[in-house]
Amino acid sequence: MMQAVKEQWPLILGLSALAMVRPLMSILGWLEAIGQPTASIAVTLIISAVWLVVVLSLRVHRPLVTLTWVGVGYGLLAIILSAVLSPLITGHLQGPITNPFAVVSVLITNGGWGLLVGSLAALIRRGKTEGQGER
User: Fold this and answer.
1) What is the pLDDT of residues 28-63, one digit of tens each?
2) 54-85 burial string, b = 16+ CB within 10 Å, else e?
3) Residues near 116 by beta carbon (within 8 Å), at least 6 away in sequence
4) SS3 state at 5
5) Which of 25, 48, 60, 115 sits CB 3.0–4.6 Å from 68 for a disulfide?
């Protein structure tokens, strides 16, 4: 299993980085301008759809595992972004990096997001495979 994940690291990193659109839109004030919470939900759904389409298009061997790691990777990137930008914006370190429980929460929440999308990808893939077997 770990070998399969190792081969997917460029994809995991790329999809994790793609999700950084969400916090960047928040930092720039675009999510507020569009209207909360609708904007955050819509952006999350769009990112999820892109993740799903990419893993299905590339026929990723273990979409559930891969997308779970994508969610965790996004969480790590978001924590790092917060740690870098908060001192620049507010003058002092803020965000999840200042609280170990918050770090764990961010990683679990975003890992769960990836797990959910990965489960959907696995179900879709299984459905396609079973549908092709009946022909």
Assistant:
1) 999 999 999 999 999 999 999 999 999 999 999 999
2) bbbeeebebbbbbbbbbbbbbbebbbeebeee
3) none
4) helix
5) 115
Long-range pairs of 42-47 with CB within 8 A, sequence gap ≥ 24:
44/113, 47/18, 47/19, 47/21, 47/22
3-state secondary structure of 135: coil
Contacting residues for 114 by C-beta, under 8 A, at least 6 apart: 51, 67, 68, 69, 70, 71, 72, 74
Beta-carbon neighbour count of residue 21 at 10 Å? 14
What's the predicted TM-score (pTM) here?
Answer: 0.89
List CB contacts of 93: < 8 A, sequence separation 6 or more: 83, 86, 87
* pLDDT single digits (tens) 42-51: 999 999 999 9
- Which candidate, 27, 128, 133, 8, places its Cα nearest to that of 68? 8
Average pLDDT of span 57-76: 96
> Positive or negative CA dihedral for 39, 44, 45, 49?
positive
